[in-house]
Design goal:
single chain; alpha+beta; Alpha-D-Glucose-1,6-Bisphosphate, Chain A, domain 4; 7-stranded antiparallel β-sheet; 3 helices; globular
């Protein structure tokens, strides 16, 4: 059983509470997801985030192929972190932690995603040439979109040190 991990780190030049306000609103996930993913929230995003919240999406991981994805918000510590876990969807396992940490330069957003693919050896092969690349593209898109929305931290010694974590 192969469990993969993706880590993403970004600094945005806003307060932690401002970053939290945006990231903890489930409706904003569509804003930071590439349109090529055909992302659409079907239910569950009508309230602010809370533990136990079930959110159902429709996504197109591949052209001409859409899938329903159901996640549960399992942990929420306001202004610090939240965790979403897949209940049904394209992965065998999906556990996504979102951490926020305030610094002098703004807010560090750190994502840690642990995931497992279906289909055994075929899933591992697909990860090598497709899935890993697709996930990196999604997180790169999110980074660029957040820069458009909030701006970019000026390159300082502190920011560079944080990026090496």
């Amino acid at each position: 059983m192969k469990v993969y991990q993706l880590r993403a780190l970004q600094i945005v030049p806003v307060t932690k509470s401002k970053a939290w306000e945006f990231l903890s609103n489930p409706k904003n996930l569509k804003v930071i997801t590439p349109s090529s993913m055909g992302f659409h929230i079907l239910s569950g995003a009508d309230r602010p985030m809370y533990p136990g919240q079930i959110i159902e999406y429709k996504v197109k991981p591949f052209p001409f192929s859409s899938v329903r994805w159901v996640t549960e918000i399992t942990h929420v510590v306001e202004n610090d972190y939240f965790v979403d876990e897949q209940r049904f969807g394209p992965y065998v396992f999906w556990h996504h932690k979102h951490f926020l940490r305030e610094t002098l330069n703004g807010t560090v957003m750190e994502d840690v995603v642990d995931y497992k693919l279906p289909f055994g050896i075929l899933g591992r092969l697909a990860h090598s040439f497709l899935i890993k690349k697709q996930l990196k593209h999604i997180f790169k898109y999110r980074e660029e979109k957040l820069i458009q929305l909030f701006g970019q931290v000026q390159e300082t010694k502190n920011a560079l040190e944080l990026k090496r974590i």
